[in-house]
Task: structure prediction
Amino acid sequence: MQVRANRRVFGSRKAFVSVYMVFASLTLIPVVGLAIDFSVLYNVKGRLQEACDAGAIGAGSMVQRSTDVTDPTTNANLRSTVQRFFMANFTPVPWRSTLVSYNSSITQDPTAKVRTIFVTASYNVPMLFMRVLGINTSTVAAQAIAKIRFVNLMVVVDRSGSVQRTGSGTLTNPQIIEADLNQFVANSSTSIFVDGRDVVGMLSYGADYYVDYPPSTHFQTSSPSIGTAINAINFGNNSTNTGEGLYQAWYQLAQLPQPGSLNVIVLITDGRPSAFTANFAVAATSTCTNRSFQAVLTSTVNDGNPWQFPPPAGRPVIGLDNFAGTSAENDSLVSGSANCAFASSSTNVTRDVTAIPSTIGPQDHTTGTHVPFTTTFSSASPYYATTPTDATIPAHVRYAAGAYAYNVAQAIRQDTTLAPVIYCVGLNFNTATYPNEEP
Result:
């Protein structure tokens, strides 16, 4: 009797395990199948993302500074490159997946000059075990975006006498400007500009201009570097020909030429312009042998009076200065000044030049891709006094210098080919230490 009872107990347990395994398999098999199918989907998704990334980065490496992505033919060729990189990284197509969609686009922001490469694709992946639940395929998708922007930067530094006097920087005791510029463009650990990718140059100006560092891609690593040029800026007792500095910076950008890049001018100055460039006709009463000069006319600010604006009538108008073309202005009189009153003293210039030309403009160049411009002023300009063309009145010279800088900046902004952006950094000074400085 005991043996029979034990056999019955053992038999009932065996039957229970069999029933348990049947019910458990109904749960475990779909779970295992789901895990396997998800592994397949994960694998295809990873391959698809790699292919999209390769397409965006591969085509991006083909985009150079001179590449015009807005040109239909160029754009089509680049999109074909995207697809070739994509297929090279997604062939053979894994797990017999089938294409659902593929698209790519290459665009350029007209203002920021950011070129964007966008790639997206999706594939149907056949399921293995999920078919028992009626799911034959699942869709995976991926996308990639690559953004490219090249920057062409010209730094324009005011090296006038007021900058030197107020401690913003001197050649023998570099201070604010040199330290900040080194941090801004010369130091690779602090600069937002990348050596080998961006183009950076620098020029300084007083009455004349000087290209301290021509635009260069390797501005941090070449010898000399832009840091060497920054530390050698020759601040001195110069006037402020802001219009000339702006124009010559624009001209440097125009020579590259790279309309697909973001062209930027950063102007660093401490005050109002005091000089301008023009072709001056001499007065009929002048004894000058030459009857016209391209030179710089200046309304000086350091006459010992409080340097207020507008300048007092007694402040001298000086010139006509020659173009030195070096880092140190020599303030020499323009060539051909024999028999002129200003040949004996630059303060006599108003005996030879009595009128401000209606058209004044920079030292033009005859080469390059852009036609050099001149700036035209009208008597209705708000930058002029009642008699705006009188070169013998210091205030009128200052108004003309200001209008010249303004109109050059306006002309630069209207350059639809390069579309330059101008930033201006205004330098201040300690009014308690320098109470006579022009505010």
User: Anything to note?
Assistant: The radius of gyration is 36 Å. The helical segments are 2-62, 72-88, 161-165, 176-186, 226-230, 242-254, 349-352, 394-413.
